[in-house]
Amino acid sequence: MSIELKVYGHIYPASLDLEHDLQKALEQAIQDEISNDVPLLERDNDIIRISFEGIYFPIDDVVEVLEKHLTPQHQGKLDVLDLYEWTLTRYTFVQCKLQSNQRSLNHVLDYSGF
């Protein structure tokens, strides 16, 4: 199986409800066999980290969960690298809103701070 998507992100402070809902949303993810050793969702104190490499990531479900739980205190980002479309979509959490920007992977490093 070839890796078509890589998704990395973090959010904090993370409640147990947020973690539970993210875990449910991620049940549909199809990881690369090599990546199965890395937990899709990992908690470190009040930070939740997402690490994914594979062919299907339920981004719409994850975005829906994040939008439902965002508060003014939340910080973090979610990067979705689509190796098939050759794009990077970055979701950031700003004042209870999820914002997204997309760039070609050819030009990602040209933008400081994305």
- Helical content, roughly? 10-25%
Total number of helices: 2
Average per-residue pLDDT, rounded, comes to: 89
Instruction: Let me know the number of strands.
Output: 7
Could you spell the SSE succession in H and E letters? EHEEEHEEE
Q: Could you give a quick summary of the protein structure above?
A:
This protein has 114 residues and is α+β, with helices and mostly antiparallel strands. It is built from two helices and seven strands. The chain has one domain (5-110).
List keywords for this structure.
alpha+beta; seven-stranded antiparallel sheet; 114 residues; 2 helices
Can you characterise this structure?
It is a single chain. With 114 residues, this protein is of the alpha+beta class. The protein has one domain (5-110). The chain is 18% helix and 42% strand. The protein has 2 helices and 7 strands. Strands 1, 2, 3, 4, 5, 6 and 7 form a 7-stranded antiparallel β-sheet that branches. A hairpin with a 2-residue loop joins strand 6 and strand 7 (97-104). Helix 1 packs antiparallel against helix 2 (59-69). It is globular. The termini are far apart. The mean pLDDT is 89.
Topology overview:
Blueprint: E1 5-12, H1 16-25, E2 30-31, E3 41-44, E4 47-56, H2 59-69, E5 75-82, E6 87-94, E7 97-104
Antiparallel strand pairs: 1-4, 1-5, 2-4, 3-4, 5-6, 6-7
Helix pairs in contact: 1-2
